[in-house]
Structures are given as C-alpha cells and as structure tokens.
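Title: [Solved] Cytochrome c-554 3D structure

Original question kept below for reference.
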Amino acid sequence: MMKKFSILAAGILSVAAIGAAIAHESENPAVKARTSVMQLYSFNLGTLGGMAKGEVEYDAEAATRAANNLVVLTQIDQSAMWPAGSDNVSDPSTRALPAIWENFPDVGTKGQAMADAAVAMQAAAGQDVEALKAAMGDLGGSCSACHKAYRAPKD
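Solution (posted by the thread starter after getting help):
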C-alpha cells in the first residue's frame, strides 16, 4: 500500500513540478497541461528506449521507476486537457489535429492501449533488458499509433 502511494505521489509531484517549470508558447492552460504530460511521457520513454537500444546501460531500478511513472501518467484524467477549440487550427502552438475531436472514441481506445502497454512494461522493466525490449514494441507502438493519426508533423 505504501509503495503504491509513493509511486502515485512521485508521479503527481513530477507532473506538477515539471509542468510548472516548463514554458510553453500557448496561452491555453489545457494545451500547456497536456504538453507537460507528453513531455513526461517522453522523458520516461527515453529512459526505457535508451536501455532497449543499448544506448544506456540497463538499470533495473531506473527502468522500473520509468515504467511506474508511465503507469501513473496513463491514469491521469486528461479529459479537461482536450477541450474543443484547442487543436492546431485554433492554436498554432499545438500539433493536435482537429481529427481528435472528430474521433474521440478511437482516441480513447488508443489511450487505453497505451495504458495497457505501460502496465506490461511495468511488469517487464525490472526483470532484465530482454524483457524490457520485448515490452518496448507495444509501448512505442501505442504512442506512434495515436501520433500518426492525430498529431501534425513538425514544421
């Protein structure tokens, strides 16, 4: 129980601290919030991806921490971070395509796939680098599935 609370508290504090520290171009607080969450995903995925690619030495503790953080991040209710009118047509600082709001059920399905892949990574991350590599495919795939469909390319 205490371990779950510690993981949850660490995740919430990470979101709050990093979200407050990072400056964004958008004036929309919802865009700022979701950008901060995406940066936290990226930070933790970078740790895991670096180990999976052999760019960083495998560290079971660091891998487990990153996987735990991802699970916490997938549990955040992001519904208030995606209000209508916060797409890249209305706010050029975001890459969120209007298709998100046209296909919310699919976005939810893709979000659940990310959550499921994060839980699988959580189970694998501390075992060994081979288990981490095996879980990385579904985790990375869940990210790219949503980004390919709903995120505009960089300029």
